Amino acid sequence: MAHTPSLEKIVPQIRRDIVRMVHKVNSGHPGGSLGCAEYFVALYFEVMEHSKSFSMDGRNEDLFFLSNGHISPVFYSTLARSGYFPVEELNSFRLIDSRLQGHPTTHEGLPGVRVASGSLGQGLSVAIGAALSKKLNKDPKTIYLLMGDGELQEGQNWEALMYAGAKGVDNLIATVDLNGKQIDGSTDEVLPLGDVRQKFEAFGWEVIELTEGNSIPQIIAALSQAKAQLGKQKPQAILMHTEMGNGVSFMMHTHAWHGKAPNDEQLAVALSENKETLGDY
Amino acid sequence: MKEYINQGSNDTRSGFGEGLTELGRTNPHVVALCADLIGSLKMQTFIDENPTRFFQVGIAEANMMGLAAGLTIGGKIPFTGTFANFSTGRVYDQIRQSIAYSVKNVKICASHAGVTLGEDGATHQILEDIGLMKMLPGMTVINTCDFNQTKAATLAIADYQGPVYLRFGRPKVPNFTTPELGFEIGKGIVLQEGNDISLIATGHLVWEALEAAKELKNQSIDAEVINIHTIKPLDEELILRSVQKTGCLVTAEEHNYLGGLGESIAGLLARKAPTPIEFVATDDCFGESGTPAQLMQKYGLNKEAIVKKALQVLKRK
Question: What is the CATH number for A177?
Answer without folding.
Answer: 3.40.50.970
